[in-house]
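User: Sequence in, structure out. Go.
Assistant: Echoing your sequence, followed by the structure tokens.
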Amino acid sequence: MSGASPSGSPVLGVLGGMGPLASAQFMLRLTLLTPAARDQDHLPAILWSDPRVPDRTAARLAGGEDPLPWLNRGIAGLEAAGCGVIAIPCNTAHGWYEGMRAATRLPILHIVDAAAEELARQGVAGGRIGVMGTAGTLAMRLYQERLEGRGYDCIVPEEAEMQALVSPGIALVKANRVAEAYAPLAEAATRLRARGAAAVVLGCTEIPLGILAGPHAEIGVPLIDTIDALALSALCWAGKL
């Protein structure tokens, strides 16, 4: 397959379902961020939304089922459908990035690189930043290692804050209780700002949904929405931006 639609436009493959609401939000933001005047100006995309993928944090921290076979099955389906690139609107799944890359000929956009590009776009070129994410993402140091190489000093929520604020907030979004997630997630971001963060990366695709459900401007620092960042990266790949 060529990775292009019959019109010649490249086709984006979206490996989703982790969780389903974050994947739906990615598709919405991909559409709204596209400079388009008509249907035909948009990027062809195929969403593979499979919520049966085993929990990524449980796999990394508690010996849970390996999600890689499920991830690779989705990638194989997208490749067979003619996609030309893969985007994965789940941060923790990037802990298996190399295993996924080894299983396909397609390029896979990296969500941390997309977040770094968004930091630069918002004028945060280095220094101390906060990173919020699942316990699995933070334990794997997906953001810390990749961003520290770009000159950022990453700080993350303390363990007590993860247990009382971040993890419960993520769980509320996954349970479709989005409005209730705002308070704990915003509190965690505010605490990172108080510790000197010049920006906060919302490094779990459930977190932007919760924080944007309330008065997020009151947090007082740039918030890097990794759903938007990944969508922008996909549009740049396709030559839409």
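User: And one key feature?
Assistant: Strands lie at 12-16, 45-49, 85-87, 127-132, 152-155, 200-202, 223-225.
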